Amino acid sequence: MEENRNISIIITTTDKDTMLRETLPVILAQEYGAEYEVVVARETRQGEVRDIVEPLQKEYHNLKTTFLPDKPQYVSDEEVKILLAVKAARYDNIVMMPPSMTPQTGKWLEELAEIILDGGQSLSDVCPALFGDGHCHKKLGILKRLRHKRRVMKALKQWCGEKGLKRKELFLRGDIRHTLIMTFKRRQYLCDMTLRDIICRHTDIYILR
């Protein structure tokens, strides 16, 4: 059914992520055979992102935005932004990507869906998350990077063991793994705290095999 291919794309940003000026119009103009939406999670109501998003919302009904109501005290800003965006998402298939990633063609989403929803390596209730690999999203020292990688891998190993998965099954196919995205099921994210933790860590440093 086509509705099973509906996708919510989540982008978390700071208030000064002007890269969205190039990224959003390309994503919103995708040629896709099912429905999709874009949810931009930002820090506050103000900032340069607002000036980018609000004019586009008048043109595209499938563009949503959320923001942090208050500064979180016990969790990271990123964790709360992801949670708010996932709760605001309409569809169960979530594609999460950084604001710096601008698709090169208008068929990017269709090609991605063929892999993560229709292909041999598919997002499903059995395998509710898939990750890109091999890219540092922000600069980290070598020791901090290694410690971070070990923490993420340890959490992944335990989570995979509980789900009966092999860790390598969670990594996106080689030809799209460098697109810096991760995909997951909305309902699984909302009920699985370990998966939430893995996804939040993944936004800090893209997982290395």
The proportion of strand residues reads: 5-15%
Radius of gyration equals: 16 Å
Characterize the largest beta sheet: strand count, sense, and whether it forms a barrel.
6 strands, mixed
Mean pLDDT: 81
In N-to-C order, the SSE pattern is: EHEHEHEHEHEHH
Helix amount, in percent?
A: 25-40%
Count of DSSP-assigned helices:
7
Segments where pLDDT lies below 50 for 5+ residues?
A: none
Cα distance, first to last residue?
Answer: 34 Å
The counted number of beta strands is 6
Class by helix and strand content?
alpha/beta
Description of the structure:
The longest helix is centred in the C-terminal third of the chain and has 22 residues, at 142-163. The protein is globular, with a radius of gyration of 16 Å. The mean pLDDT is 81. Helix content is 39%, strand content 14%. The chain has a six-stranded mixed β-sheet, with helices on both faces. The N and C termini lie far apart (34 Å). It is of the alpha/beta class and 209 residues long. The chain has helices at 20-28, 48-59, 77-88, 108-116, 142-163, 186-191, 193-204; strands at 7-12, 36-42, 63-67, 93-96, 129-131, 182-185. The relative contact order is 0.17. Helix 1 packs parallel to helix 2. The protein is built from seven helices and six strands.
